[in-house]
Amino acid sequence: MKVLVAVKRVIDYNVKVRVKPDHSDVDLNNVKMAINPFCEIAVEEAVRLKEKGVASEIIVVSIGPKEAQEQIRTALALGADRGLLIQTEEMPSSLGVAKLLKAVVDEEQPQLIILGKQSIDTDNNQTGQMLAALTDYPQGAFASSVEVEGDHINVAREIDGGLQTLKLSLPAVITADLRLNEPRYASLPNIMKAKRKPLDTKTPADLGVTLNNTLKTVKVEPPAERQAGIKVASVEELVDKLKNEAKVI
Amino acid sequence: MSILVIAEHNNLDLHKPTLNTVTAALALGDDVDILVAGANCGKVAEQAAQIAKIRKVLLADHAAYEHQLAENVAKLIATVGKSYSHILAPAGTQGKNTLPRVAALLDVDQLSDVIRIDSPDTFARPIYAGNAIATVQSSAAIKVMTIRATNFDAVATNGNAPIETLDDTFSTSNATFIKEEIAESDRPELTVADVVISGGRGMASGENFEMLYTLADKLNAAVGASRAAVDAGFVPNDMQVGQTGKIVAPNLYIAVGISGAIQHLAGMKDSKVIVAINKDEEAPIFQVADYGLVADLFEVVPQLENLV
Ligand SMILES: Cc1cc2nc3c(=O)[nH]c(=O)nc-3n(C[C@H](O)[C@H](O)[C@H](O)COP(=O)(O)OP(=O)(O)OC[C@H]3O[C@@H](n4cnc5c(N)ncnc54)[C@H](O)[C@@H]3O)c2cc1C
Ligand SMILES: Nc1ncnc2c1ncn2[C@@H]1O[C@H](COP(=O)(O)O)[C@@H](O)[C@H]1O
């Protein structure tokens, strides 16, 4: 079975982002970029399905600038078979991304589509669910374990109260939560091999999709800073402060 | 301006974030309706009817909605919601699972985790794990958004709105509910508790969390955790606080053996008073703590329990 994985190029999760002085956006100049952590988990899950003989081919797709090729190459080094970059300078909204992915699904007809649950830049947590709506496929969002059995997939999902398990018929859309797996590191030979794997480039127009982002960012501000606090020397002092100064216990 | 609020519930009780979401809805306009979709959930509709200042409750009571399967509920919400200007849901896992599916069915962009309403089309939301706040203007035909409950007060519940029953049923055969493992606890719910005590990797084991539970019972507190504690298997995932877990903003947050990674801070830094207990005086958690105690948690947590 064919598996499609969507990976996004985002700021590295260790970087603390800063807002530009003119409040137009965050400053991404000279900032380390990486594959979105949840997308890395999505790729790893696809590779494990291939190692188990469940998946036959893994296609990774990314929507973004030319540089997003780097993240596709990373995914190829982790074990994906071929890549597709949908090149656009303007980052589309999640609905825009979902529409582009829908066009790819129509062409490639994968049985399973794995996305990350959330991009760590926009923190949207939308695209997988939107793609599921556009394709009318069932969805397993926030997956912490998946198991393919014949023509369906069992998905354990992280929900507010605990865990929920669903049985979805294939094709289906899954979004990966952090606990789904721990991604491997790409080995040097695999990084070299990834350079020779096919990587196609298309534009939204090639796919017949017109993007119309209705969300306009008016300004971007730093969050309210917390006042620096104090260190207390003992538990007695702490309890005294909480009772008599902060009055919270 | 008419606003549809999707109730969060478990077929028995209306969840409190719904009340905060109604406050956000009332900042948009006066005509606010509540949709309760579930199975045998008449009790929830009755609770929703008591929400002050709302117009009416819409009740869709059918087996297809019992487990909030997004496939079914999203079609219902999109059908009912297309005559509204705004569709809002609390930003819990139910809302996050369903609302983007609704937005795509309605062919509109969605806003997640709205923390402030400036006008009927302009909203603020955190991005980059809360390291920046974006003000966003939406020209979407219907504004679909999830609301971060901790940023809005709860509306009063002294109302008496009419309940209208809906017959629309959407039922897929592509998704079937198998089971749910829900953590049972007598302690307050994390997202609504006045006091939250969270443990991190420093707790070293699940057994050691007992210390926090005992302390929590004395303070009527909820117990949370860092992702590292969840990943290490000390505690279940529903206790995770942070960018990808629960967002909490209690009066008092006590972080025990937690270093203070930005992803953790994203879930708790709006707490009123923050206490950090960590043996490493350089731990970043101290940068957001009002009261920091540099100490071995195994020594001071039992002392704390004796003194409160
Ligand atoms: C995409 C992504 C999303 C994430 N989302 C979340 C999230 O939602 N929530 C979250 O929490 N994390 C999240 N993380 C993980 C996050 O980056 C950190 O790894 C995690 O928060 C660290 O947990 P910790 O502070 O418990 O562990 P550590 O960073 O290992 O810190 C343990 C602390 O305990 C202290 N300690 C140890 N022993 C003792 C002792 N005896 N007494 C006192 N102090 C002691 C140490 O000094 C240390 O500071 C996410 C990561 C990624 C990549
Ligand atoms: N530009 C993009 N290119 C490829 N995949 C994306 C893109 N944006 C979002 N996704 C996918 O959708 C997931 C959720 O993203 P979001 O809805 O933006 O939080 C990500 O983890 C990716 O798998």
Structural account:
- The complex is a heterodimer of chains A (249) and B (308).
- By secondary structure, chain A is α/β, with parallel strands linked by helices.
- Chain A has one domain: HUPs (Rossmann fold, 3-Layer(aba) Sandwich).
- Chain A has six helices and 13 strands.
- Chain A has helices at 37-51, 69-78, 94-108, 127-135, 188-194, 235-245, and strands spanning 2-6, 9-11, 33-35, 57-64, 82-87, 112-116, 139-149, 152-159, 162-169, 172-176, 199-202, 215-221, 230-232.
- In chain A, the strands form two sheets. Chain A has a nine-stranded mixed sheet, sandwiched between helices. Chain A has a two-stranded antiparallel sheet with strand order 2-3.
- In chain A, strand 7 (139-149) and strand 8 form a beta hairpin.
- The radius of gyration of chain A is 21 Å and the shape is globular.
- Chain A starts with a strand and ends with a helix.
- Chain B is of the alpha/beta class.
- Chain B contains eight helices and 16 strands.
- In chain B, the strands form three sheets. Chain B has a seven-stranded parallel sheet with strand order 5-9-4-1-2-3-10, sandwiched between helices. Chain B has a five-stranded parallel sheet with strand order 13-12-14-15-16.
- In chain B, a hairpin with a 4-residue loop joins strand 7 (122-127) and strand 8 (132-138).
- The relative contact order of chain B is 0.12.
- The mean pLDDT of chain B is 97.
- Strand 12 (215-221) of chain A pairs antiparallel with strand 8 of chain B.
- Residues 6-8, 36, 38-39, 42, 62-64, 94, 97, 115-116, 118-119, 122, 124-128 of chain A line the site of adenosine monophosphate.
- The site of adenosine monophosphate (AMP) has 22 residues of chain A, from helix 1, strand 4, helix 3, strand 6 and helix 4.
